[in-house]
Amino acid sequence: MNGSTISCETIKLKNNSKLYWQYNCDRIWLTLENAEGNKVTVDEVDIDLYNYTYRLGFHLIKEYENTLLFRSGCSASGPCSYILIDKNNGEKIDEYGQLICIDTDSLWSEVSRKYEFDFIVYLSQDSDDLIIYFIDTKQTIKIPFKEKFTAIVPEQQFDKMSLDNSILTLFYSTEEDPQKTLKINLAPKNAFGDEKF
User: Fold this and answer.
1) What's the confidence (pLDDT) of residue 195?
2) Coil, helix or strand at residue 185
3) What are the Cα distances from residue 141, in Å, to 116, 119, 122, 131, 148?
4) In angstroms, rounded to a whole number, what is the distance separating the alpha carbons of residues 153 and 186?
5) Largest Cα–Cα distance of the chain, in whole Å?
6) Going by C-beta distance under 8 Å and a sequence separation of 6 or more, which residues neighbour residue 118?
7) Are 182 and 122 in contact (CB under 8 A)?
8) How far apart are CA 132 and CA 100, in angstroms?
9) Do residues 28 and 21 make contact, with C-beta atoms less than 8 angstroms apart?
10) Would you say 85 and 94 are in contact if contact means Cβ atoms under 8 Å apart?
């Protein structure tokens, strides 16, 4: 098991907390240890499922100012769940369904990369709105979204996203058009409604 399905390296967080996997004959667990040495188990996987720990267990996606975002519970063809926890005490803050363009891991895609954005993007439950949620500031942008996807997991029809000068561009496909884009201005507005650049 050692290193075959989980990383045995300790991750040091910006607030001097540590995150590390451990296992014994009964279970596999992920520990968050804060700077004072207090430990909390943030995830646990039954030992019988050890070879699925990488898909089923918590996989760190990004560290934010006060929180950690993990991927978890991925079935063979998706979707995954995403869990946001407080990085000081390990308490769960929120849980999301499949997010858009967030799979950063070389085992799941050809290119391993870090998730660089300070927000997450997902579709509303009925897929009528695109939601952009800024993790640190807790701000939400909701954009009406008229596309009707045919995939079982609509978020998987998005290929990539990029951010350039406050313009978020989402690249996705539909049955009619395999190369569509959606541009969203994320620049804050001033009191007069004008965008700041």
Assistant:
1) 43
2) strand
3) 18, 10, 11, 6, 20
4) 26
5) 63
6) 64, 134, 135, 136
7) no
8) 10
9) yes
10) no
What are 151's two structure tokens?
């995939």
What CA–CA distances, in Å, run from 41 to 33, 50, 114, 176? 9, 17, 25, 47
How far from the centroid of its chain's Cα atoms is residue 46's Cα?
23
Cβ–Cβ < 8 Å for 46, 29? no
Tokens 């496909």, located at residue: 173
Average pLDDT per block of 10 residues along the chain, 197 residues long: 68 94 89 94 89 85 94 83 94 94 57 79 89 95 87 87 92 87 81 40
Residue 126 has what pLDDT? 83
- Residue 87 backbone phi and psi in degrees, to 5: -80, -5
> What is the structure's pLDDT at 109?
46
Q: Which residue is associated with the tokens 């950063």?
A: 104
pLDDT the model gives residue 4:
53
